[in-house]
């Protein structure tokens, strides 16, 4: 019997990543039903784990008896003292860089990447180390039952490369592959990415 796990995310990029990894564990990952009509909780945590646990507990109340998974993940840049960190998705918005209300598409990733490049403009190549970090939490009926974390080390490019992935992937360079996260296949990404490693750890625990 296939175990079902609801993901509290509407991000198609995240759902694609999650489902690719889950296929190997006989676990079905589906978006939480009615997620679009559920008000998002305030992410008041100061760490990725705080926010992942907060969201998992909150969203699990909307699917009684089911396992609900939530993640918090982002980019930590050493030269920026770990920023954007837990504010990765809202990095540019925090600085006032947002789309106009009538923008035809969501340009959040573009704004975030542009601001990151601006703030690293005077940072030498050998000081642009960074990592992606992801914490996943699974909860049932308001209680966290499992958590897992994954990281991947890299550096920040001076200009984007690649058309795959999302978020900061076009700027996140993997020296061992001579590629950015946006240049590698989804299957390769899942074997080494922060999200793939965290999900692998979580799925192993759930399947025990």
Using the alpha-carbon principal axes, give the shape.
Answer: globular
Oligomeric assembly = single chain
Largest sheet: 7 strands, mixed
Instruction: Name the helix and strand elements from N-terminus to C-terminus, one letter apiece.
Output: EHEHEHHEEEEHH
Q: Give the C-level CATH assignment.
A: Alpha Beta
Q: Give the low-pLDDT segments.
A: none
Q: Taking all residues together, what is the mean pLDDT? A: 91
How far is it from the N-terminal to the C-terminal residue, by CA? 14 Å
Q: Write the CATH architecture name.
A: Alpha-Beta Complex
- Adjacency order of strands in the biggest sheet: 2-1-3-4-5-6-7
Q: Kindly estimate the percentage of residues that lie in beta strands according to DSSP.
A: 25-35%
Residues in helix, % = 25-40%
Give the strand tally. 7
How many domains comprise the coordinates? 1
What does this protein structure show overall?
This protein is of the alpha/beta class and 208 residues long. It has one domain: Maf protein (Alpha-Beta Complex), CATH 3.90.950. The protein is 29% helix and 25% strand. The chain is built from six helices and seven strands; from the N terminus they run E-H-E-H-E-H-H-E-E-E-E-H-H. It has helices at 12-22, 48-60, 91-94, 108-119, 186-192, 194-206, and strands at residues 3-7, 27-31, 67-77, 129-140, 143-156, 172-174, 179-180. The protein has a seven-stranded mixed beta sheet. Strand 1, helix 1 and strand 2 (27-31) form a beta-alpha-beta unit. Helix 1 (12-22) crosses helix 6 and helix 5 (186-192) crosses helix 6. The longest helix has 13 residues, at 48-60. The radius of gyration is 17 Å and the shape is globular. The model has no long low-confidence stretch (mean pLDDT 91).
